[in-house]
Amino acid sequence: MEKQRNPQVLIIVVLSLAILTMSIGFASMNKRPNETTNVHYSGGTWNVAFDDASKIVVTNGSVMNDLPSVTGTSVSFDVTFNEPGQFYEFVIPITNNGTYDAELDSIVMSSLTESQKEYLKYTVDYIDSSLKPISYTESTSSLAKTLRSGITHALTVRVEYSSEEILNEPINISLMATLQYKPKLS
Questions:
Q1: How does pLDDT run across 115-157, given as a tens digit for each residue?
Q2: Where are the alpha helices (DSSP H) in 30-98?
Q3: Under 8 Å CB-to-CB from 21, ≥6 apart: which residues?
Q4: How far apart are CA 11 and CA 15, in angstroms?
Q5: Where are the alpha helices (H) located in the chain, listed in sequence order?
């Protein structure tokens, strides 16, 4: 009984080591950049980000606010409205400065509360190489929009006091939008 048990233990140990070795090998061969880093690989670089805040263009007629804050592929801003009809809109370029093509996987937007939805309208328009804006009013995934290496697309962000109802106090709101990219396969 003892002699028969030893070969079984040996086989289990060898198979476990083989699986562990293959897992480590597979993980190291599958290194791909992710959407939040500027990475250098022997085959190229991954660098998708909004251009700096100095390239943000605020639309004429917008309420006066500080420029949005930009970090990587995220933009956040604060806005104050005093009366119906006011809006805040800006355009911000996003550039693929890496050597890999990128694919827009999702847009994550701040959610308005139900009461805010009664008097505010928040939209994000993604403008790709076709120059046809695609509007989003909530977080969206599985977009599959390509941003080729060396190319710039644009994002237009707009929040509007769309209700006719005048509130007793100013509306102060903080919003954000994040574009999540992944390497384009093929």
A1: 888 889 999 998 887 778 888 888 888 788 889 999 899 899 9
A2: none
A3: none
A4: 6
A5: 2-29, 114-117
Q: Which CATH number fits domain 41-183: 2.70.98, 2.60.120, 3.30.450, 2.40.160?
A: 2.60.120
Give the span between the Cα atoms of 135 and 183, in whole angstroms.
23
In the numeric block, the tokens 């989003």 are attached to: 136
* Residue 166 · residue 83 · CB < 8 Å: yes
Residue 107 near residue 157, CB atoms below 8 Å: no
- Residues in contact with 54: Cβ distance below 8 Å, sequence separation at least 6, in sequence order: none
DSSP state, residue 59:
P
Q: 60-106, pLDDT tens digit by residue?
A: 778 877 888 899 999 999 999 988 889 999 999 999 999 989 998 89
- Report residue 111: phi and psi, to 5°: -95, 135
